[in-house]
Every structure is written in structure tokens, then in C-alpha cells.
Amino acid sequence: MIIIGEKINGSIPSVAKAIAEKDADFIKNLAIAQTQAGATYIDVCASVEDSIELEVMKWLIDLVQQVSDLPIAVDSPNAKTCVEAMAYCNKPGLINSVSGEGDKMDIVFPKIAETKWDVVALLNGNKGIPKTAADRLEVFNEIMDKAKQYNIAPERFHIDPLVEMLCTAEDGISVVNEVISTIKKEYPTIHITGAISNISFNLPVRKLVNQAFLVLAMNAGLDSAILDPLNRDMMGMMYATEACLGKDYYCINYITAYRENKFGPVK
Amino acid sequence: MSKIEELAQAIEYGKLKEVPDLVNAALEEGNEPIEILNKGMVDAMSIVGDKFMKNEIFVPEMLIAARAMQAGVEVLKPKLAGEAGATIGKCIIGTVAGDLHDIGKNLVGMMIESTGIEVIDLGVDVTSDKFIETIKANPDCNIVALSALLTTTLEALKGTIVAIKEAGLRDKVKIMVGGAPVTQAFADEVGADGYAKDAAGAALVAKDLIA
Prior knowledge:
The structure holds 2 protein chains of 2 kinds.
Chain A: E1 2-9, H1 13-20, H2 24-37, E2 41-45, H3 50-67, E3 72-75, H4 79-85, E4 94-99, H5 104-112, E5 118-122, H6 133-149, E6 157-160, H7 174-186, E7 191-192, H8 206-220, E8 224-227, H9 232-244, H10 252-259
Parallel strand pairs in A: 1-2, 1-8, 2-3, 3-4, 4-5, 5-6, 6-7
Chain B: H1 3-12, H2 19-28, H3 33-53, H4 59-80, E1 89-95, H5 103-113, E2 117-121, H6 128-137, E3 143-147, H7 154-166, E4 174-178, H8 184-189, E5 194-195, H9 199-210
Parallel strand pairs in B: 1-2, 1-3, 3-4, 4-5
Helix pairs in contact in B: 1-2, 1-3, 2-4, 3-4, 3-9, 5-9, 6-7
């Protein structure tokens, strides 16, 4: 399972405050904690005004790289920012994200084609967030057509089927389920990711909903996730699910993660 | 319990299937359509909004209540046509250009509608030209509600307000703003007349702006 650690994001009030006050230690601590907790990437999202976004991105990325060797997930709704922030990174990371919307793919794909960077691709197009699985898969096919043009292999993609809040969904997670299984059947090596906690907005005891969703989505084929690796219950559930799905030989990863104090009673 | 009271309770608890029959039963009891609307539906929804703001109920409960009211309004609409006071105002709502999010905006639209305000929903990725065109086509419109879910589209939200001003329409309408990255401070900065952090709050703000 690939864990994209979500904690350094300017849309989180405490992080916004640290950015505004240039509190370097706060950011560094988030990077260290997520690294120790078992993140694969450290996501960095400034979530500030356009005019200062790049400068803040650089500040954040520099701080993370001072304390962690993990690759960075450069996160901005602005594709140009993602591409420009690649230069601040010591090693290839993850672009978060492109979608079928506008010219995002045309901005990002040529810049990553000849590199080892991976990319998150959201399945929304120009007409909004597609309501049906068929419409999301249509956007997916457009993305893969474009990927072929630039010769970017499927395994470099983390497809985000778009996790929306359960409380306003007509039919649970059936759309996401269908999208994930269809894609995985066609492209077994592609990664499927998602912002797990989106599922539980506006519901009580969100962690239960998050965990239920994680298990079901992993069962459908999700193998990457944007989440808080410091959430021990979530991490434990993830390791347990991998073992149940037969992706953890004799539960060794589960046992090792337990021994490394990644979940269970705090040692 | 009178049929109007039963209707109000069915709306409050989101019992959509019972609502059309209760509206008809209330009409048969001899109640005026406008009274059924106000006492049986609008008042019930204001209780729902109030409970939501006190954290007594959750978003899905508010959503099914609003849907139940919509089902009731559909039955009542032909009887209300042309009746004075059937709507208390008109609001144009949309997610600004470059932004495709609509779940929150839809909920806000429903809650504003539940106060008796007519809502014209322009959908997502709405250009400032489209807003201006719609304001011009609806001279009786009192409120324009702008939604943005991304930090990158806050600029488009600001731009829409500027464009409405430049089109000479700023004095004709009240403007309210909302969405995840929108704050009261931002609303003040862009010169909006109203801001709310959730759909129930938005309904109250809309009512205040019209009063």
C-alpha cells in the first residue's frame, strides 16, 4: 500500500497558521512524524493565494527535505504550480494532480514524460464531477489516451476515482467501487488512490466510516491512499486488510508494522 | 393533530413518501395553499435548520427534509400559481468559473428554497457573464449566491463580484458567498453582503438579506 501523507496542507487551520507565521519547526515535525509513521510520500499543499503559492511551496518542500528522505507529492489545483515545484525536489516524486479538466494534462505530461515522476489523475472532466461510473471511466480513457501519446506507463498513474461524501450519495460507494474494479481489470499495474477522509464529511464518528470505506475500496483494488499516517487505527486497519486480501505473505508486514509501533497500544 | 401539523412533522423527519398525500389531505381540510406552504413546510424547515445549527441533526437529515419539502411544493405549485406571497424573493445561485464542485452549493440552494425564496440554479463553472445575463433576465432577483470550493477559484469569485459591479448591477442585488475556503474575512474583503459557513446558516442569511 502506498501512503501519501496528507498533513502538510494549508487548508488545515494549524498548518495555515504555521505558514503565515513561518513556523519552520511545526512543518518539520509534521514531516518527521509522517516519515516515522510509514508514509511513502509527503504531500505538500500550500493552499494560499496564487501570487505567493510557488514561494510557499518552495519553503515547505525545503523544510520537508531537511528532515526526510521521502519523495514529495507536489499538491496544487494549479497544474503549472505542480510542474514548477518539481525543480525544488531532490528526487522524483508525485504530481498531485491532473484531471480531464482544461489543459492540465498538456501542462504536466510533457514535463514528466522523460522523468521518473508519478502522477495522480482525478476522473473529473470539464463538465464537473461525473455522476455515473460510465462517465468517470470515459474521463479515465481520455487520460490514458493522452498518456499513450506521451509514452507514460500506466504504473506511473495513481487514479483517483473521486471520493465524495457518503452522506449525500444516493447509493453508497457503488460508483467508486465500479470505477476501481473496471480500471484494475483493464490495467492491473495502475495505482488507484483517493482522499479517504472525504467519505465521512458531516457524519458522526468519522473514523468508523473512513475505516469501512478503506477496507471496501482496498477490496475493489485501491492500493494507494491520501490519508493521515499518524492515525494508528487507520494504519492498523490498512495492514490488517492487506493481510486478509492475501497481499501480505504470512502476515509478516502486519506483524512488522505492529512491532515498529505503527498501530496497536502505544509503546 | 391537524393535517398541517402532520405535514410539518413528515417534512421535519424527511418522510418524502408521505408528504404528497398529506399536502392533498391538508387541502381537503380546507386550508389555504399559502398556509400549507408556510405553516406545513417553511416553518418545519426552519426548525430543521435550527436543529442543524445546534448540532442536533446531521447533513443527511437536513437533506432528506429539504427533499421532502420539494416533493410537497411540487403538489402545491399549481394551486399556488399567481398567489401573492407564494415566494418571498428570488435568488440566483451558482459555483463560480473554473470550479466544478456542486454538492455544497446544491444543499445551500435547497435550504434557501425551503425558506420560500425562488432559486435559479446556474450549476457549476458559471462565468461572470452568465451571472450578469441572468440578473438582467430576472429584474425581480434579490440575491446572487456565489460558491467556490477551491483556493484557486476564490479569485474567480472575487472577479464575479467586480464584474457585477462593472455591469452596473451591484445595487440591484445582494450578494452572498460561501464554500470551504471562504471565510467571513474574505466575504468582507470582496464586499459581499452575506456569508454563512453552512447551508442552514445560508438560508437564514438569505432571509435576512431580503427582509
